[in-house]
Amino acid sequence: MNFHKRAFSFLQKPRTFEFIRSFVSFPYTMIRFVFGCTIVSIGMFVSAAGGSWDISNHLLNKPETFFSIPHAVLYGGVALAIFGLAIVRMTYRKYVSIYDNNNKMKLSSKLMLMGISMLVVAGPIDFAWHSAFGLDGLLSPPHFVLLSGMIVSSLGAMLGIISYVSTHDDRKMNNKEDFSTEAKTVSITTYLPLIFIGLLPLWMTLEGLIGMLSLPFSNTQYFNFNPNPFLAAALATLGYPLLISFILCFSFHLGDRKFGVLSVMGACYLAIHALTAIVPNESLIPTLTFYILNLLPILASDVLLSSTNRVSVYACGLILGSTFLMMQYPLITYVYNEVFTKQAFVWPSLLASSYFSMIVSIYPLVVGPAAAMGIVGAILAGKVIDRSSVSRIIEHR
């Protein structure tokens, strides 16, 4: 008799209702939320890659229409992000009471809604702009709205992923809720791929903003939105080192301050940059070996940060900041070429030779401020982590 009671106990109403309650409980709701955030991040990653590919096509003078393949990739990423946003918003509305005390998740949801709304608006504007003016430059009203929406969406998705990690681990630490055995055994290391998925699109879109405001690719038949060459060079010299150092050091802290996380993050970036900015130009393919050498300073920075002392943080920032001129190859050539030769255009077939002849004279001038901004980025990454709830999780573990 007891055997039959145990065998069919799953049919008892209390146990059935308990299962239903657990399915709609906090952990499962959070999983749906972070799944939506991850889809948004992947969409922004695809869009950013498509945008970089589109720039390469422009430089190679390939036929420019709204219905080009890079544009299809870019707006395909937008469609994917819209799908992710739908998951986030449905979860948010259905279980809104769960988020009452989680301001980060509220902000994340609002940022994603705001950013993707900008993307949806930018599409028809971009189509109308192409229809009216044909070829458009890198900096144009629809492109600026599009990139701004990508940045806001990437930031919202990243914040949502971090909020999921911090909230999940906070509840485990405080024993506020009875988690399942599977949830209890999950550590923050399991979430690292999600964090990288969220961080990489943010890096790429912020880099795109610096490029949009510094590269001389915005002079068209009807409009000239090219930035001032000297201001553009100053922005690139200060902005790129700060961004590179901050993102890589931030990823190191999010990865439990363990060796290898920064290197993997840097390698992913280098691979994407090579595939979208170097490989499309056949004349640049022989220089891939040079570009891959950027892994060496990244690995050195990873080793230094693993020693966890203040001097190593400064040294890491100095190294990462001073390598920006190599990591931004080949497009950075256009920024400084306009300053030193007064010519914005470089033939794609001559891009490599122009870069290597330029770097000898330019690098000594920019390495000082670049290294300083790299140090600022490394320090800033630690400050942001210290002010967030993620730092408490890392210390607890």
How can the largest sheet be summarized?
A: none
Mean pLDDT: 80
State the low-pLDDT regions, or none.
Answer: 1-26, 170-186, 391-397
Order of helices and strands: HHHHHHHHHHHHHHHHH
Number of strands: 0
| Helix content percent band | over 70%
> How many structural domains does the protein architecture include?
2
SS content category: mainly alpha
Describe it:
Helix 12 runs antiparallel to helix 13. The N terminus and C terminus are likely disordered. Helices cover 76% and strands 0% of the residues.
Present the secondary structure layout:
Layout: H1 2-7, H2 13-23, H3 26-59, H4 69-94, H5 103-133, H6 141-174, H7 181-184, H8 192-214, H9 229-254, H10 261-278, H11 288-292, H12 295-305, H13 310-322, H14 324-327, H15 332-341, H16 351-387, H17 390-396
Helix pairs in contact: 3-4, 3-6, 3-8, 3-10, 4-5, 5-6, 6-8, 8-9, 9-10, 9-13, 9-15, 9-16, 10-12, 12-13, 13-16, 15-16
Notable characteristics:
397 residues; disordered N terminus; mainly alpha
Question: Care to give the gist of this entry?
Answer:
The chain has two domains: 26-227; 228-397, no CATH class. Helix content is 76%, strand content 0%. It contains 17 helices and no strands.
